[in-house]
């Protein structure tokens, strides 16, 4: 019986790696993430111009942005459960097909004979299933050892930087030369290509053979992807909720600032559209270098707990400096510290949280982590606008300084979880 089982185990291991092998699957995962993020930032850059062309004012534009954020917030945990139950191939394919549907609706909204405004709002609906980055994080977490995981997840910052740089660049270039519909059609073709690569090259599952047995115990029916109890159960595991709260609370102040950045760059920094674009490209390059290269090197020399404390400390100091800045040059000096803190916080918390849950739940856990940014995009426009109108730009620095200082004191005096220390 053992001789019969051994080849089966080897076959299961091969199915986890796919025909490309482990390194090939990981490399393709990075490529797919870069393609999706490029198209996503292309869409973000095209949406204001498409909305203006369709006659929408800033309030209506805010409504559809909030709608997109709410749908992604609600869809993240459900998508994570789907990825855990149905595997990496199904998760990538579903995400890319949802993205293709979104870009198809946006391209159709550019046709004068069609109801453009209705199609524009309808295009927000597939956003609930557009979660290629959490799918990529799940694959990286499944195929990397606990020691390799922070560096492997950090390399996804290179993909984010590629999207942040080339997405707006492609949007502006193609819109100027071929019209607003052209970049959306390009994004449609690219996401369809991503779906094809997912179906043909990504293995059906990247989890260990025993992980699926953990998901569905013998004698019990398979839980639904919409099972809220199964999702909240993750947060109630030892040490998970405190670390998740650290991720949400520390990142929320800078998230508010970034949501309001387009207005701040015009009113406070007095930048033109092209200058604001250069500043965002600088942000993207910093993120590529710091998250893709620096975080990985630091994780091999320092513990995750030390990196987490360092990120919160730098966040707090940078917040105090933000409260005192008066021009864009001051902000450029602060950007390396802000980007380091943001990258370290996201990479380290994602790594710790995926280690704190079983292998069968990494997708759901990363889906919960992915809901943090949509939460900021949902609450940010209203709360950030109120703070900016009432107190000006320094209030964002004051809030960031105070919040992160409190979290730093808590982290320093009270360990978050013994279980996470053992995992490290």
UniProtKB/TrEMBL annotation:
Chain coiled-coil ranges: none
Major place of residence: membrane
Domain Major facilitator superfamily (MFS) profile: 22-418
Entry-linked Pfam families: MFS_1
Membrane-traversing stretches: 24-43, 102-122, 152-170, 182-205, 244-264, 276-294, 306-324, 391-412
SUPFAM superfamilies membership: MFS general substrate transporter
Domain of life the protein comes from: Eukaryota
Cell compartment(s), UniProt: Membrane
Name of the molecule in the record: Major facilitator superfamily (MFS) profile domain-containing protein
Source species: Rangifer tarandus platyrhynchus (Svalbard reindeer)
Lineage: Eukaryota, Metazoa, Chordata, Craniata, Vertebrata
